[in-house]
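During the no-cost extension, the postdoctoral fellow (Dr. R.K.) reprocessed legacy sequence entries with the updated structure-token encoder. One reprocessed record is reproduced below for audit purposes.
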Amino acid sequence: MAKLYFRYGAMNSGKSTLLLQVAYNYEERGMHVLLLKPGVDTKGEDEIVSRLGVRRRVDRVIAEETDCRTLVQEERKKRPIDCILVDEAQFLSPRHVEQLFAAVMDTRIPCICYGLRTDFRGEGFPGSQRLLELAHSLEELKTICHCGRKAIMNIRRVNGKTVFEGDQVCIDNSATIEYEAVCGQCFLAERRKVGEVPLASLNEDYPLPNEE
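Re-encoded structure tokens follow.
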């Protein structure tokens, strides 16, 4: 049975690189992939851009008004499709995710989505939340914090200063905006440095568990 997959990880966990590797593996065996990305992701315009420098143009960009189920049906009429690959899936709307789920069920074509689970505030992206609810298979892609622990969160820096306020979507294609993957302990420490309440019910006296 074809499935909807969600492979998620913090920044710099190799999501786009892995997607491009999966595409290569399919094509090396004479199979065909459909590469998609949300239009909200303006970095690279119509290309998937890996931090290792590998780039590849997508087949279609998903706009806000796009019906992903119809998109897959249209592309399927043009050529065979053995797998659908979606980069930066956190920027999908919940409706897009539901449409991809329906497309997988209707066409029996697997769809693998790659993206972040949470934003720089530790809050879920709407698209990622829907993927966590609907995907048949969930896989965490791991990376490490500067302290050596497993990184599970992301922090945003603007002109070198860590911030926890601002729009959820702010693409890091500007020299002033940077993101870093950090562990839970370093994430809370950064919040305390800037005077933010660490998380809903935590305070300075609350003992923090050790990260794996």
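The CA atoms of residues 55 and 186 lie 32 Å apart. The longest strand covers residues 4-9. The remaining legacy entries will be reprocessed before the final report is submitted.
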